[in-house]
Structures are given as structure tokens and as C-alpha cells.
Write a sequence for this structure.
């Protein structure tokens, strides 16, 4: 599972960075989304990958080995919400720039 | 100190209340009463921040107002920590915000929608970033201030603003992702997000994890350096600042200081005074980046034709100076840097506002023409002696040029004003820190003094072009009282800081001593550690 996740994060961030460096605003916004997915998966993996483990332990026979850290999951939730809002905001600015300059180039050049 | 701890959250709550108030009442730009209430919120914030600073200054050096949100026990819940450093940054922000708010209420607030709620949200984010004691909370406040700053950078509209804001948004979104990666790595190696708890956990990191931890801090540092405007991560800055609306740009002057604050806080807390392999991690990198930023900013200042671009490059110069001071890692140098950060922020804010007043009396074409004339010569340059002498400088122009001269003296660091005192404090502390001055001391001295000369030349050239060659001869300039008073107030504060340099320096040196003794910060935030 670790290998699968690592490969997924790697592919997502590599494609995201490639798209970020492209000259069209649409490519940039897709690149930002891909990088944000990669970052979210990365945060989740920093809480250690665990299957079938509960974040809250209770009872007498609770075993500390069967514990999933809830903090990174809470962080990911916050990061997703903030990232989504920022992407939506960027979309509006992108459309405004398209309307004002008549081009979807990031520098507003007419090709 | 129990009752006083509640003051720590007020600098966040007051701007939030102001933003909510504006949202509920809707966008009524022309209503003078609503504008008045907004200014009243600004005044209230300055008063509360001043109270916080006064209370802390009268308590003992290690005093800090610790406010656990929701009263959760400290390492687990989110905590606000108002120590002397945070209180002084909050007060600087509040004063600058009030000046920009008064200035904007003359006419800029009606150039677009929702100016006031966005403005207050930005102030809330700035104050929150200074006050928080939790790394992830710092991220949230960063996003809050950035979201508001995206809206404000677009205020007024127009093709140039939209283009500059688009670049600004992309750069800062990438910086936010780097921030998250850094925070995740630090959490995975220390198991906590509380800054004081991280400082406590660093010496206990297992040898295998140390590289991972340092990688996390480095990634986080890159995110902070982007915000601080450090070379080579600063290319977004001059365009964004010079195309933003002037009152917005004035408030943005404090945004680069958030990056400086975060680096100073985390770096001294986590690395500076630890013994072990991580001693002075990244010190050389910070130092080289500081020198490079100063060099780039100075050359940029010389090359800029318009006053707003010049002010943007001056912000780069001050960012570089502050990075150098952090990298030097000595309490005396930090004292000077704290003095410098207040003075440079106020003066840069005043300069952005001043530029707009000058623009109103003088069309931008005339200013650029003056620069071209300087380069290519003017055929009608030869004037009669009489003509030269009879040229009258009216009172309003005198006032403007006086403001400009004060800003120039402060920015270039010439005596007798506060810019000189701050640079002198940094350099004399750097020389007395060691028995014989090291190479780093000489680099710092050279960078600061040569950049001062460059800034002076750039400011004098701009001043001559604006006030001596381009001012209209008929002399009747009309200035709005609402616009000129904030500028005068900001510059008067710079002068007052020079007059009362003694008490100010005492405060700054005690603050610096507290910053460079990280154990006292840990003890204040995690009091149960003292008992055990």
C-alpha cells in the first residue's frame, strides 16, 4: 500500500508541476488541482498508513497498536476546504483576465 | 494575568466584528456614517493593541498573554500567544491599517465592491498570524489574509491589476501547498503542531527522523521566504504592489513582514539556541539570500522610473535587511531589526499613500517624461535666470516634499531619523557581538551601507523629478485633508520613534532577549512543564 500511495503522489505532483509551468490559465488551474490532491494524500500519509484502526480508543482492552492518528485527517479536511475555495476564487480571476485581455495566456498576450 | 489573557484574542475579534458589520449592512459606499463606523473600528483596534502592548511592557520581560481557545489543555488545543514580539507587530499592523483606512475613505473605498469587509478580513488574518502559537493555525490565518488580499489586489479593477493579481494568486497557492507539506513533515517527526511543544520535542527526535524534520523545516522556510519577498522568490512582488490600489499597497507593506515574523519566531524557537547537529540550520542560506535580496532591491530601486515601483523595491531592500538580521542570530542585532521592522513598515506605507497624492496633482505621463528628459535632454532646457528665480513653490507642494524628504531619510537610513538609529543599532551590535568582526559582519555592514546609498540616490532622483521639474507652476494644489493627514501621522510616528529612541530601544532589547531564550517561551506556553 505504501508503494501504491507513493507512486500516486509522485505522478500527481509531477503532472501538476508540469501543468503549472504551462502558459495557459486552464492548464495552470488543472495543475494546481493536481498538486493539491498530491499534497492532501501526502498529509494523510504523514499520520502513518493504517487499515482497520480506530482514531478513538476506549474500553479496557484497547491496544495502542490499533490506533489511527486523527490529527492529519482533520488537517486534510481543512486543507481540502481551503484549497477548494482558493481554486474557485482563482477561476473567477482567470475568467476576468480572459475577458479583459481577450486571451487565455497567463501574461495576457494575444498569442 | 488571568483577566488580561482575554485581550490576546481581541485584535482578531474586532476586525472580524467590523467585517461582519459591513457584510450585514451591505455595500453602502456613499453612506458617510458607515464609513465613520469603519474608522471607529480601526481606532478601537489601535487602542486595544496599544493596551496589550502597554500591559506587556509593564509586566516582567517573560510575560505573555496565553489564550487557549475553548480552554482545551495547551498542547492539544489551539493556543494564542501574545508575547512582546507579537504585541508589537499587532500594534504596527493596527496603526498602518487605521492610516490606510482613513486614506481609503476619502475616495478609494468606492472604486469597487466590498472594500471594507475585505480590508478588515486582511487585518484579522494579519493579527491572527502574529498571535497564534500553533503551526496549523498559522496556515489557516495565512490563507485568511491571502484570500482577503486577493480580493483587495483586484480592488479597482482594470487589466493590469487583474493580470498582476492572477500571478500573485498562483504563486501564493503554490506557497500554501509548500507550507502544508512542511507542516505535515514536522508533524510526522515531532507529533505536535504547537510551536512551543515542537521546540520541546526537537532535541528528542530520533536520528533517522532528523533529516525528515530538517527537510520539513526547509520546505516550510521556502514558503515563508516567498511571503517575505526574498530573492529569488520575490518576482511577484514589485508588480503586485505597484499595481494594487494605494491604500491596499500600504497595508500590503506589512504582509512581507509576516514572512519575516514567522521565520524569526520558528527559527529562534526551534534551532537557534539548541545544541546538537541542528545548530544554526540554514543560517548560511538565510544570510546569502538576505544579501542577494538587498542587492536586487537596491539595483531595482535605482532602475525604477515611477514612485510606486520604487516603493516596491524599497520593500525588497527592507525584507533583505531583516533576513540578514535574523541570520546573524544575536540578540543585539535582533533588537535593531525589531526597531527597523516597525519604522520600515510605517515609512513604506506612507510612501505608497504619498505616491497616490502626488499622482493626483501630477499626471503619470509628466513623471515619466521627467525621467526621459533626464536621459535624453530637453531642447528648451536653457532658462533665463529670472524665470528660474521667480519659480514659486506653494504651501501644499512644500508639505508634500517635506513628507517625501522624511520618508527618504527614514528609508535610506540617514541621521537624524529613526532609519539611521535602527541600522546603527544593528551594525554596532554586530561589531560588538564577537571579539573581532567576522566576514559575515563585514558583508552585513557593506550590504546595509551600500544599499542605503543606492536608496538615497533613487529617492533624491525621484524627488527632483517630481518636485523640482514637474510640479505645475501655477501652484494651486488641492489636497484632501483625509488623504494628507494619515501620511503626516505615519511619518510623525517615525520621527517620534527617533525622539523617544531610549524607551523604544529598552522595549525592543527586552523583546529580543525573550526571543533568544526559547526556553522562556516554552515555559510560558506550557506551564505544567515547570511543575513537573
Amino acid at each position: 500500500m505504501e508503494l501504491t500511495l507513493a507512486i500516486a503522489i509522485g505522478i500527481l505532483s509531477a503532472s501538476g508541476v508540469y501543468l503549472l509551468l504551462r502558459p495557459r490559465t486552464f492548464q495552470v488551474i488543472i495543475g494546481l488541482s493536481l498538486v493539491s490532491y498530491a499534497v492532501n494524500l501526502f498529509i494523510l500519509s504523514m499520520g502513518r498508513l493504517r487499515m482497520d484502526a480506530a482514531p478513538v480508543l476506549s474500553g479496557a482492552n484497547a491496544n495502542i497498536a490499533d490506533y489511527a492518528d486523527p490529527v492529519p485527517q482533520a488537517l486534510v479536511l481543512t486543507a481540502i476546504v481551503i484549497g477548494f475555495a482558493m481554486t474557485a476564487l482563482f477561476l473567477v480571476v482567470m475568467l476576468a483576465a480572459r475577458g479583459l485581455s481577450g486571451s487565455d495566456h497567463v501574461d495576457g498576450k494575444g498569442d | 494575568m488571568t483577566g488580561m489573557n482575554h485581550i490576546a484574542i481581541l485584535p482578531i475579534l474586532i476586525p472580524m466584528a467590523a467585517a461582519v458589520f459591513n457584510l450585514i449592512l451591505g455595500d453602502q459606499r456613499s453612506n458617510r456614517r458607515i464609513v465613520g463606523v469603519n474608522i471607529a473600528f480601526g481606532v478601537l483596534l489601535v487602542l486595544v493593541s496599544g493596551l496589550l502592548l502597554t500591559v506587556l511592557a509593564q509586566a516582567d520581560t517573560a510575560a505573555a498573554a496565553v489564550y487557549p481557545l475553548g480552554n482545551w489543555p495547551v498542547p492539544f488545543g489551539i493556543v494564542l500567544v501574545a508575547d512582546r514580539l507579537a504585541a508589537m507587530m499587532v500594534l504596527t499592523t493596527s496603526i498602518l491599517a487605521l492610516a490606510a483606512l482613513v486614506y481609503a475613505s476619502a475616495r478609494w473605498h468606492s472604486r469597487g465592491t466590498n472594500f471594507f469587509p475585505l480590508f478588515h478580513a486582511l487585518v484579522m488574518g494579519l493579527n491572527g498570524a502574529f498571535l497564534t502559537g500553533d503551526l496549523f493555525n498559522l496556515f489557516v490565518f495565512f490563507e485568511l489574509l491571502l484570500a482577503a488580499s486577493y480580493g483587495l489586489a483586484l480592488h479597482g479593477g482594470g487589466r493590469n491589476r487583474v493580470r498582476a493579481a492572477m500571478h500573485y494568486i498562483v504563486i501564493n497557492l503554490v506557497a500554501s501547498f509548500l507550507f502544508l507539506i512542511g507542516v505535515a513533515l514536522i508533524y510526522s517527526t515531532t507529533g505536535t503542531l504547537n510551536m512551543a511543544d515542537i521546540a520541546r520535542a526537537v532535541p528528542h527526535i530520533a536520528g533517522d527522523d532528523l533529516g525528515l524534520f530538517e527537510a520539513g523545516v526547509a520546505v516550510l522556510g521556502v514558503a515563508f521566504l516567498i511571503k517575505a519577498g526574498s530573492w529569488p522568490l520575490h518576482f511577484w512582488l514589485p508588480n503586485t504592489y505597484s499595481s494594487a490600489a494605494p491604500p491596499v499597497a500600504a497595508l500590503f507593506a506589512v504582509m512581507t513582514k509576516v514572512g519575516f515574523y514567522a521565520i524569526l519566531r520558528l527559527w529562534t524557537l526551534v534551532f537557534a539556541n539548541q545544541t546538537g547537529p541542528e545548530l544554526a540550520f540554514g543560517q548560511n542560506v538565510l544570510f546569502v539570500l538576505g544579501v542577494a535580496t538587498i542587492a536586487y532591491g537596491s539595483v531595482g530601486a535605482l532602475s525604477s522610473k515611477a514612485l510606486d515601483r520604487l516603493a516596491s523595491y524599497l520593500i525588497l531592500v527592507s525584507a533583505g535587511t531583516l533576513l540578514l538580521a535574523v541570520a546573524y542570530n544575536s540578540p543585539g542585532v535582533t533588537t535593531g531589526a525589531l526597531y527597523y521592522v516597525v519604522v520600515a513598515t510605517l515609512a513604506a506605507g506612507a510612501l505608497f499613500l504619498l505616491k497616490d497624492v502626488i499622482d493626483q496633482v501630477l499626471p503619470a505621463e509628466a513623471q515619466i517624461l521627467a525621467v526621459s528628459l533626464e536621459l535624453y535632454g530637453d531642447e528648451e532646457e536653457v532658462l533665463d535666470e529670472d524665470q528660474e528665480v521667480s519659480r514659486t513653490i506653494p504651501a501644499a507642494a512644500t508639505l508634500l516634499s517635506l513628507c517625501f524628504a522624511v520618508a527618504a531619510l527614514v528609508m535610506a537610513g540617514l541621521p537624524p531619523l529613526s532609519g539611521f538609529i535602527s541600522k546603527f543599532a544593528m551594525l554596532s551590535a554586530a561589531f560588538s557581538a564577537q571579539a573581532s568582526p567576522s566576514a559575515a559582519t563585514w558583508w552585513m555592514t557593506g550590504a546595509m551601507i551600500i544599499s542605503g546609498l543606492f536608496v538615497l540616490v533613487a529617492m533624491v532622483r525621484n524627488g527632483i523629478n517630481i518636485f523640482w521639474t514637474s510640479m505645475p507652476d501655477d501652484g494651486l494644489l488641492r489636497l484632501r485633508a483625509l488623504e494628507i493627514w494619515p501620511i503626516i501621522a505615519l511619518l510623525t510616528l517615525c520621527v517620534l520613534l527617533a525622539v523617544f529612541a531610549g524607551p523604544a530601544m529598552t522595549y525592543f532589547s527586552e523583546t529580543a532577549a525573550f526571543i533568544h531564550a526559547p526556553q522562556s517561551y516554552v515555559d510560558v506556553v506550557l506551564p505544567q512543564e515547570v511543575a513537573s
Notes: Chain A has one domain: 2-50+69-101. The mean pLDDT of chain A is 85.
